[in-house]
TrEMBL record, chain A:
<keyword id="KW-0547">Nucleotide-binding</keyword>
<feature type="region of interest" description="Disordered">
    <location>
        <begin position="191"/>
        <end position="300"/>
    </location>
</feature>
<keyword id="KW-0963">Cytoplasm</keyword>
<feature type="compositionally biased region" description="Basic and acidic residues">
    <location>
        <begin position="279"/>
        <end position="291"/>
    </location>
</feature>
<dbReference type="InterPro" id="IPR015033">
    <property type="entry name" value="HBS1-like_N"/>
</dbReference>
<feature type="region of interest" description="Disordered">
    <location>
        <begin position="1"/>
        <end position="34"/>
    </location>
</feature>
<dbReference type="Pfam" id="PF00009">
    <property type="entry name" value="GTP_EFTU"/>
</dbReference>
<dbReference type="Pfam" id="PF08938">
    <property type="entry name" value="HBS1_N"/>
</dbReference>
<feature type="domain" description="Tr-type G">
    <location>
        <begin position="414"/>
        <end position="641"/>
    </location>
</feature>
From TrEMBL, chain B:
<dbReference type="Pfam" id="PF03465">
    <property type="entry name" value="eRF1_3"/>
</dbReference>
<dbReference type="Pfam" id="PF26356">
    <property type="entry name" value="Pelota_N"/>
</dbReference>
<dbReference type="InterPro" id="IPR042226">
    <property type="entry name" value="eFR1_2_sf"/>
</dbReference>
<protein>
    <recommendedName>
        <fullName>Protein DOM34 homolog</fullName>
    </recommendedName>
</protein>
<dbReference type="InterPro" id="IPR029064">
    <property type="entry name" value="Ribosomal_eL30-like_sf"/>
</dbReference>
<keyword id="KW-0479">Metal-binding</keyword>
<dbReference type="InterPro" id="IPR005141">
    <property type="entry name" value="eRF1_2"/>
</dbReference>
<comment type="similarity">
    <text>Belongs to the eukaryotic release factor 1 family. Pelota subfamily.</text>
</comment>
<dbReference type="Pfam" id="PF03464">
    <property type="entry name" value="eRF1_2"/>
</dbReference>
Length: 826, 403
């Protein structure tokens, strides 16, 4: 050993080296040794065969014996002979397993380990094969062909920790076969056992039956307790152990099977067994009479498994007894039925409970066949119960499933039309409409007087008529319309809905919302000197362009405040000429434009012909005549439902959540499930109102109030779109559109308006400038789009918005309308 | 940002050590650090150790790591910068080549090293990087042109902080407001609720102390701009006044700093209009922002004139520079710093070269706009780069090339 010469090597390392070397020698013998061993083996075998009595031993046995006796041929022969003689007396040859030589010295530990490995690997192979090469059989080799974690059952075994001392040997339990004297206690127990044997109830036959197998277990040293426990059990093979010669001279090698058999009977409280052997023994007797003896050669479950599964299997368990008794005691103490083996054939505890419940309810679902059904019913009823417990009670509205379109055809009612009132701020829009409503008795005189009083109180007497429509406190205080106001009145054959829109430039978004609901428009122009001119530059123009691009065809121009210019005909004609020229360029056809000189404040030419002599030059109709002359507008009734929500509000205690708006296309009825976009939430129409009166259905073109149920108001915002789930409107983030530019267009931030919908977005690409008439591409990818040109743009939005082609949209930036047009492609 | 150590070398290499002191400094750091740089900073790293028995334990260790930057992630809302890359220095707990994401923290110094030379990965301290560093370090100390703006309309309010280099949308308040209707007071009630919610949110973001004891404190209050179409902002101001008079007297401190301005809508991009209003211009005198806004306005006016003396888009501007139109006598190159943050080093080099060329060779003016500002966003809409030209260029052919 060269390493021994190295001075620097520490002592420990030396030791380790030696150890290593030994190990090597143990594992693989060098040829010399092998030769010697071979020689000795031959010698032993021949001596065995020659001697008296002549015995035959296998080469392996001989070699092993030689190994144990350090190649001492004589000792080996003696040993083998003794062994073989004993074996011949038995039915089964026992291996030299337990024949442990006493003279194990320095290699003791290692040897034990190797033995242990042998046990592990050998079981349940026939012991002979094991014993033939007990020390030359490393575990790794054995497991070489075994798949990892998937060891075949026959290869499985328990690793047993060998005990250094005989079990409970201190209590006097020396193994009988070992030549030791029986302790008094053990003798007493044996005596009792014999008595037990004599009891007539004991199945003696079982002993015989068990006899052959008993030989398997004889190698084990028996502890006192085991013997005590077994004393009452006639069936137990271990009770024969006193008659067996203790082959287990080596107390370290407990045979796995024997240990298994000698473990405690689970139902025996072990402490009791130790302290009161008598009582326990008697108890065992009675107990065992019920149990036929079984021989179980199966591998035992682990402690954990045994704890879970129950005691029946635990009886076969191999475990250190002190641990074992503890678990047992616990089970005893808590007195639970855990000890019962659990076969999964019976109903589960849950099923038992459910069955009990259902039987209590009157169901008879005990039969296994009908059980699943019963379960389902139960679940259904449970979920039903849960639903009914919910905070928000689901409201079921029964739909009448009307064919709305045929109902609509049957139903004959007056034409209904919406018109939007537009014009520059302070043109007198609200006042004119207030006058219209007042004169048509749509507002009662009392309310009108009240408005007048209140308006005069704050010094704004001239606004009294406007207050009919301007209901907001801020609107009244400031004398300006902020949001659209809707009001309806009837003539002989038409129901009109006024959408009064604000004229101030800041509220153009609201005006767009109003214009999107209109069939035609009334443009109010302030004819007074100066105001007309400023109006034309201001919102008069913008509004007219907007309503045209929103799809409004017909426009009635009410030249208001004619009384301030003494009904000057020239003034009227000047305005008519200028405005009609402008409107024509904006795209209105001349036949769809009509002019009415009127005065909102005095009511001349609004509903009645003016009696003023100055107006005698005017031969045309009044404003109301012009309104009535308008052709009704046709709506897309058979298209999918689309309705832009104009307002979300609380309709009252009965109607906690209502939305209003105008149906753009399609129809709806009470009980319909509707989908609101972009939230994608569903709601049920509980009831609905058309033009203030309750109905059962509504069609496109009507102004409706939907009273909704089963939706949280946070999902509803004005500008959202109501549709049916069968034909939902998509939520999009970018689209391509064809627009008429009102201003220079650059890729920039814009607000996108569609009715109430009002979202930020940006022009990302200027695709092309188009020819106004033909729509052909004039210039691709322009740098800038000049005002008045028609261009195709790509617009993107930050959030998904319910839009679909074709839709009219308006683009605004910095408070000005920059473009309006048609959404072509999403 | 405080400059602790400056070791920039003439060849464009070298390192600087900086301490970010306020959230906006993270934005500067974001503009300074480009992929390929070496970043040296402290980091918290979770180190997992495997014992001999196979059990693992992990603990957080504060390490000083040096990484080769691969990727940057900037969270504008919280002003947090996460820089990921591969570790180049070996420590007790890390190996070279492991990945780590450094989270730069306020008041913790970091060292940024940029390589130079042909074989280095980074782009070095080019003129744009040095400019960005100057901006970041703020040598003049004329910072603090900060304001809070509430851009609102009925049922919608955007609360944003306007800094010198960027505008941060802090919160959006949205509420469904019922329309006016006869006999109903829901509209007014909901509007009051909306104002109150907006005020609460605003105070929370201002970290405004509303306790009565705070009356005596002399903390400067930043100007608060209330902008809306119509009367919403004015009503909101009135609401704040009434709250100050009734329940929360501490709000009186806030009242003098409130300015009501007009905006076209309550959407965030109306902020441009707010910042252009004369009152606000007077308030935030000569900030970078005001200059940038003016520049963008000039540009769009020029574009509207259709004299072909203004152009935008990467290809068009390069073409114009090639023609020599962005030079002495009014040529201005407007470029968004988004372009310099490109993950592709070659692309950054391209833009830096363009900037250097315009500034040094052509003699034109170069303005780098912050992409986090409204004007920068406008510029980004135009492709991130635009130019005012000294003579008209017809770049029809450039546009056609791309077809």
């Amino acid at each position: 050993m060269s390493r021994h010469r190295v001075k620097a090597v520490s002592y420990d390392e030396d030791d380790y080296d030696e150890y290593d070397e030994d190990d090597d020698g143990y594992d693989s013998q060098d040829p010399e040794e092998k030769e010697f061993l071979e020689e000795c083996t031959r010698e032993v075998l021949s001596q065995l065969a020659a001697g008296v009595p002549s015995v035959s031993a296998s080469r392996g046995e001989a070699q092993e014996a030689l190994w144990h006796y350090y190649n001492d041929v004589e000792k080996s022969v003696n040993y083998l002979r003794g062994k073989k003689t004993k074996e011949t007396g038995k039915k089964k040859p026992t291996a030299a397993l337990t024949a442990k030589p006493k003279g194990i010295t320095g290699k003791e530990t290692l040897f034990c380990v190797s033995r242990l490995v042998c046990f592990v690997s050998s079981y349940p192979l026939p012991p002979t094969t094991v014993s033939s090469h007990p020390s030359h059989f490393p575990a790794a080799q054995f497991f070489r062909d075994s798949p990892w974690l998937n060891i075949p059952a026959h290869r499985k075994a328990d690793i047993l920790v060998e005990q250094l001392y005989p079990r409970l040997g201190l209590l006097g339990g020396a193994p009988e076969g070992g030549g030791g004297k029986m302790s008094k206690l053990a003798a007493l127990a044996a005596a009792r056992k014999k008595e037990g044997d004599k009891t007539p109830t004991s199945p003696t036959t079982a002993i015989d039956k068990a006899q052959p197998s008993a030989s398997e277990y004889k190698g084990a040293p028996l502890s006192l307790r085991e013997r005590l426990a077994g004393s009452g059990k006639q069936a137990r093979p271990s009770e024969d152990s006193p008659s067996l010669p203790g082959l287990g001279k080596g107390p370290r090698c407990g045979h796995p099977l024997s240990q298994k058999r000698t473990s405690l009977e689970p139902k025996t409280p072990t402490p009791a067994a130790v302290t009161e052997p008598d009582a326990s023994a008697r108890g065992e007797q009675t107990h065992d009479q019920e149990k036929p003896p079984t021989v179980n050669v199966r591998a035992p479950p682990s402690t954990f498994a045994a704890t879970i599964i129950g005691v029946d299997t635990r009886s076969k368990m191999t475990e250190l007894s002190h641990l074992y008794t503890n678990t047992l005691d616990l089970i005893r103490i808590y007195g639970q039925d855990l000890a019962e083996p659990f076969d999964f054939a019976g109903p589960s505890p849950d099923d038992v409970v459910l069955n009990a419940q259902s039987s209590a309810k009157g169901f008879k679902s005990k039969q296994p066949a009908s059980k699943p059904q019963g379960d389902k019913k139960d679940q259904a009823s449970l979920t039903g119960d849960m639903d009914s417990l919910g905070l928000a009670e689901k409201i079921h509205v029964k739909s009448k499933n009307l064919d709305v379109l045929s109902e609509y055809k049957k139903f004959k009612r007056k034409n209904a039309m919406n018109f939007v009132v537009i014009g520059h701020v302070d043109a007198g829009k609200s006042t004119l409409m207030g006058r219209l409503l007042a004169d048509l008795k749509a507002v009662d005189q009392r309310a009108l007087d009240k408005y007048r009083r209140e308006a005069e109180k704050i010094g704004k007497g001239s606004f009294a008529l406007a207050w009919v429509l301007d209901q907001g406190s801020e609107e009244r205080a400031r004398g300006v319309t902020i949001d659209i106001a809707m009001s309806k009145f009837e003539t002989e054959n038409t129901i009109f809905t006024i959408v009064d829109s604000p004229g101030h430039r800041d509220f153009v978004p609201n005006m767009i919302a109003g214009a999107s609901q209109a069939d035609f428009a009334v443009l109010v122009i302030d004819s007074s000197i100066g105001n007309y001119e400023s109006g034309l530059k201001g919102q008069t123009k913008e509004h007219a362009l907007l309503v045209r691009s929103m799809g409004v065809q017909r426009i009635i121009v009410a030249v208001n405040k004619m009384d301030t210019v003494q009904w000057d005909k020239d003034r009227f004609e000047e305005i008519e000429q200028q405005v009609s020229a402008f409107l024509t360029t904006a795209g209105f056809q001349a036949k769809n434009i009509s002019f009415v000189p009127c005065s909102g404040i005095s009511g001349d030419n609004v509903t009645r012909r003016s009696e003023d002599l100055n107006v005698s030059w005017y031969a045309g109709g009044t404003l109301i005549d012009e309104l009535e002359a308008t052709e009704p507008y046709l709506h897309a009734l058979d298209k999918p439902l689309r309705m832009t929500i104009g307002d979300v509000f609380r309709g009252g205690i009965q109607q906690p959540l209502s939305v209003s708006g105008r149906i753009d296309s399609g129809s709806l009825q009470i009980g319909d499930q509707i989908l609101t976009m972009p939230s994608g939430e569903t709601a049920t129409i509980r009831s609905l109102e058309v033009d203030g009166g309750p109905t059962e259905w509504a069609v496109a073109g009507q102004n409706v109030v939907l009273n909704l149920a089963n939706i949280d108001p946070i999902h509803l915002r004005s500008g959202d779109v109501v549709c049916h789930a069968s034909a939902p409107i998509p939520n999009i983030t970018s689209f391509s559109c064809k627009v008429l530019a009102f201003d220079h267009l650059l890729p920039s931030m814009v607000d996108i308006h569609r009715g109430r919908l009002h979202v930020p977005g940006r022009i990302t690409r200027l695709t092309a400038i188009l020819d106004k008439g033909s729509g052909n591409v004039l210039k691709k990818k322009p740098k800038i789009v000049p005002p008045g040109a028609v261009a195709r743009l790509v617009v993107e939005m930050d959030h998904a918005v319910p839009l679909e082609a074709p839709t009219r949209i308006v683009l605004r930036a910095g408070g000005d309308t920059v473009a309006a047009g048609l959404l072509e492609r999403t | 940002m405080r400059l602790v150590k400056n070791k920039i070398e003439y060849n464009g290499g070298g390192s600087v050590t900086l301490i970010p002191e306020e959230p906006e400094d993270m934005w500067h750091a974001y503009n300074l650090i480009v992929p390929g740089d070496l970043l040296y900073a402290t980091a918290l790293r979770r180190v997992t150790t495997t014992a001999a028995t196979g059990s693992t334990s992990s603990q957080r260790v504060r390490l000083t790591l040096e990484i080769r930057v691969k990727n940057l992630d900037f969270d504008p809302q919280n002003s947090q910068l996460h820089v990921s890359g591969q570790i180049v220095n070996e420590t007790q707990h890390t190996k070279v080549g492991q990945h780590h994401t450094l989270d730069l923290e306020l008041n913790r110094q970091f060292t940024l090293e940029k390589g130079s030379g042909p074989n280095s990965e980074g782009s070095g301290w080019d003129s744009v990087a040095v400019e960005a560093l100057k901006d970041a370090v703020d040598e003049g100390g004329n910072r603090r042109a900060e304001a809070v703006a509430v851009v609102m309309q009925e049922g919608l309010a955007h609360i944003c902080f306007i800094g010198q280099f960027r505008t941060i949308l802090k919160q959006k308040v949205e509420m469904s407001v019922p329309r006016k209707r006869a006999g109903g007071s829901d509209h007014d009630k909901t509007m009051t609720k909306f104002y109150q919610t907006t005020l609460d949110t605003l105070l929370r973001h201002l970290e405004f102390n509303t306790s009565s004891t705070s009356m005596s404190t002399t903390d400067p209050v930043r100007p608060v701009l209330l902008a809306s179409p119509g009367f919403t902002a004015a009503s909101f101001q009135k609401h704040i006044q009434s709250v100050a008079n009734t329940s929360t007297p501490a709000l009186k401190r806030l009242l003098p700093s409130i300015v009501v301005v007009h905006s076209a809508s309550g959407h965030l991009h109306s902020l441009t209009e707010v910042l252009q209003s004369p009152t606000v211009k007077a308030l935030l005198s000569d900030t970078k922002h005001a200059r940038e806004t003016k520049l963008m306005d000039d540009f769009s006016t020029e574009l509207r004139k259709e004299t072909n003396k203004a152009t935008y888009g990467p290809r068009e501007v390069e073409h114009a520079v090639d023609q020599g139109a962005v030079g002495r006598g009014g040529g201005v190159l407007i470029i968004s710093n988004r372009l310099f943050r490109s993950q592709d080093v070659a692309e950054r080099k391209k833009w830096v070269a363009l900037v250097d060329r315009v500034r040094d060779t052509e003699g034109g003016e170069v303005r780098v706009l912050s992409s986090e500002h409204e004007s920068g966003k406008r510029l980004d809409g135009l492709g991130g780069i635009a130019a005012l030209l000294t003579f008209p260029i017809n770049d029809e052919d450039v546009g056609e090339d791309s077809e």
